């Protein structure tokens, strides 16, 4: 994920991801100004498009892998 610079950014994305149907928890390894790692925990498969939409709705973008 790109564009995050602080804990507030990480909390905003975590909250958005945890609102996705099926997601139990989300955590972010914050790298201010760099590419951050995101871990999503769910009880079933969560469509990638749902994760992408939640991140983008929070104002950030997923980095190309």
UniProtKB/TrEMBL annotation:
Residues 1-63 form the HMA domain. Gene3D superfamilies: 3.30.70.100. InterPro entries: HMA_dom (IPR006121), HMA_dom_sf (IPR036163). It holds the Pfam family HMA. This is Heavy-metal-associated domain-containing protein. It comes from Kocuria carniphila.
């Amino acid at each position: 994920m790109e564009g995050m610079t602080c804990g507030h950014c990480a909390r905003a994305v975590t909250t958005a991801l945890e609102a996705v149907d099926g997601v139990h928890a989300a955590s972010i390894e914050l790298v201010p100004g760099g590419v951050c790692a995101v871990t999503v925990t769910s009880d079933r498969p969560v469509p990638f498009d749902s994760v992408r939409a939640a991140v983008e709705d929070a104002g950030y973008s997923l980095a190309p892998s």
